[in-house]
Amino acid sequence: MSIVAHELSFRYPRSQFAISDISCEIKSGRITAIVGPNGSGKSTLVRLLAGLRAPESGSIQINEQAISSISHPHRARLLAFIEQRPQLAFDFEVRRVVEFGAHHRGVSEDQVDRAMELFELSSVANRPYAKLSVGQQQRVSLARSWVQIGTNQESYLLADEPCSAMDPKFVNLTMENLRSLANTGIGVGIVIHDLTSAARWADDAVVLNKDGRLIGYGEAQKLLNSSTLSDVFDINIRRFESEGGHPVLYPTSSIE
Questions:
Q1: Fewest Cβ atoms nearer than 10 Å: which of 63, 71, 99, 152?
Q2: 31-35 and 187-191: which strand pairing?
Q3: Number of domains observed in the structure of the chain
């Protein structure tokens, strides 16, 4: 089971291509990190994979079915998408927003409670969503998506920088929860700027360059190396293993 993108290209009106000829997969039971410099088309790619935009050329299949042929209710059962900066038209309380994830199917209060606990939201359950910090709103969106896809092993969670506004504690909590989700068989695809988190938590990686072209797709441990990332980000990036055995990636100096 997987989301398969084959030779995707897309451009916005009156502009050059945002991405060109991208082929990759979001596989069930694995975390796939989408990385690349600003303007490389990462957000465009994840929106295409979620069916929120249609490619100019190429194809997308979810579990061997063309995404364009899947009804919206069925797609809601298969796929949850999280914006980098989630917004709501009305000022609902936090728990109500999390419950929105159950709109397309029956979910017990216990399941909503569990999602609230996983992302440490119980203390703000009755607060208006709009009054939260962006990092808190991201956690609410993650909890909503968690409820939406449940334990359906044929489903996927796609997210555009889901941890970008979180402090370190909640980045780690979120990535642990996404790892647990993948371990149940769900496919997870995330746009991420934190290369250390990508290398630590991702099974696979999609690396794009500044022109929106694919540099590589494959196992994260092989692809997220100093040489490839230094070329892509135009800065020297070193990789080493921490005392705990986790990879650490950090920039050292500009490439001359």
A1: 71
A2: parallel
A3: 1
Determine the Cα–Cα distance for residues 8 and 57; give it in Å rounded to an integer. 6
- Joined together, the tokens standing for residue 38 give 């600003």
The torsion angles phi and psi of 121, rounded to 5 degrees, stand at -115, 0
Instruction: Check residue 253 and give its pLDDT.
Output: 66
| The two three-digit tokens of residue 83, written as one number | 């914006």
Task: Report the pLDDT value the prediction gives residue 104, as an integer from 0 to 100.
Answer: 65
User: Residues 208, 218: contact at Cβ < 8 Å?
Assistant: no
In this prediction, residue 256 carries a pLDDT of: 46
Looking at the chain, how many residues does it have? 256
DSSP H or E segment with residue 9: strand 2-11
Of 193, 155, 152, 154, nearest to 171 (Cα)? 193
The predicted model scores a pTM of: 0.92
pLDDT tens-digit map of 176-203: 999 999 999 999 999 999 999 999 999 9
DSSP 186: -
Confidence at residue 77, expressed as pLDDT on a 0 to 100 scale: 84
CA distance 231 to 181: 32
Contact between 23 and 5 under an 8 Å Cβ cutoff? The reply is yes
Residue labelled with tokens 């993948």: 182
Domain of residue 229: give its range.
2-254
- Is residue 52 within 8 A of residue 64, CB to CB? The reply is no
Name the region of 58 (left: φ>0; alpha: ψ -120 to 50; beta: rest). left
Structure tokens at 59: 């194809």
Residues 97 and 141: their CA atoms lie apart, in Å, by 8
Q: What is the CATH number of the domain that holds 184?
A: 3.40.50.300
Q: What is the helix (H) or strand (E) element at residue 148, kind and residue range? A: helix 134-149
Pairing of strands 214-219, 235-241: unpaired
